[in-house]
Amino acid sequence: MELVSILNLSYLVASILFIVGIKQLAHPKTASRGNLLGALGMFIAVVATLFDQAILTYDWIIVGVLIGSVIGIILAIKIQMTAMPQLVAVLNGFGGIASVFVAGAALQLSIPKYAFAVNYQEIVSIVFSAIVGGITFSGSFIAFGKLQGFITEKAVRYPGDQLVKILVGLTAVGLGVYGCLEPTDESIYWILSGVSLLLGIFLVIPIGGADMPVVISLLNSYSGIAASATGFVLNNNVLIISGSLVGASGIILTQIMCKAMNRSLTNVLFGGFGAVATEMKDDGDFYSGKIKSTSADEVAMLLDVARSVVIVPGYGMAVAQAQHTVRDLYQLLTARGIDVTFAIHPVAGRMPGHMNVLLAEADIPYDRLKEMDEINSTFENVDVVIVNGANDVTNPLAKTDPKSPIAGMPILDVGNAKTVVVIKRSLSPGFAGVPNPLFIADNCLMLFGDGKKATQEMIAALKES
């Protein structure tokens, strides 16, 4: 069998593994196996590519593999689940810039050929890789900075910012067209890449921190599209297929998240989030004299007579690494005949599925996890809701204040329950930067403290009751 046939067969097997892997990622019970299948597919694709006859020396390839492997192992061990959105943003960015450099290298090799005949499929793909890859790289690192706190989480707006984005975008398109017409001028490619990097900054910087999960999902799609375009540049089938899978799944996820947050995909694409939103100012009197603090002993008394309990996990629970302690509380309550479920907001923890993964890690039965649409109508029949570290996803301002940064975002209607207990370190605002009227509601009690420690104290109090 010819080498080309073996390569194509290997790429076909890898692509099938990618597809099956993504399918199995759709359910927690098969997600681990799906992840392994995807990794196996990538391993096969990489090994097959190393047998390509175009490779003249393996020296730098080996160096790159070793460096990348070490970095990957360190990240896998060190990165906490709470920092996973930031890691995804960084990986998206690296994928984008890789497409820019690979397409640029392909252009250098093709310039001598273009003096005689231009391959327009190739040059269009090269230009497309530069634009999408550049936007993905800079936009992803802006998203990383906002999530990590290096850059302000607020939507950065200034007079004429939309016009600036349009002008920079048109400049990128104009340079792209010129690059296709004059493919032998390599400098145009790198100027185009620089303008695309600038465009990525202008597109993401006006977006508020509360909307970063949607942005990361969209940029993930961009990285796949850039990779697919690079596949056309290199005539690499597995890169085209895998990039298309990432691009399509990212767009679908973005659309689902937009629906969950009542956002417009058009606004995401053009960096229009927060266009009319204004941050709500807290003059110091919002909570003054209105907060009802409680203790673990008082919460234990409430739980002791409850028949139904809903636990709402949030980013604060993830930061405290309290998922296993929450599981212990769940098991204790269940053993007493109390019906316990978990209410999962689509973007709780900043990333879709973040809370599902944490709770699955703690061996909480998947059938106990209820999505927002399923559980919202049942809160009025719930005796006690325990909000552990969640803020924006339970904030009534989303429904009552059209000028709030989270205006229109569907929330968990925990305020409809008979009693709400909010576990929180302090009254500091959530990621959106606005106060939460839930905390001063008549049926709300605040249990101040670390999510893990407060839950442990509740468990101890329950066992003594």
Automatic annotation (TrEMBL):
Coiled coil: none annotated. Its EC number is 7.1.1.1. One of its GO terms (molecular function) is NADP binding. The transhydrogenation between NADH and NADP is coupled to respiration and ATP hydrolysis and functions as a proton pump across the membrane. One of its GO terms (cellular component) is plasma membrane. SUPFAM superfamilies: DHS-like NAD/FAD-binding domain (SSF52467). This is NAD(P) transhydrogenase subunit beta. InterPro entries: DHS-like_NAD/FAD-binding_dom, NADH_DH_b, PNTB-like. Keywords: Cell inner membrane, Cell membrane, Membrane, NAD, NADP, Translocase, Transmembrane, Transmembrane helix.
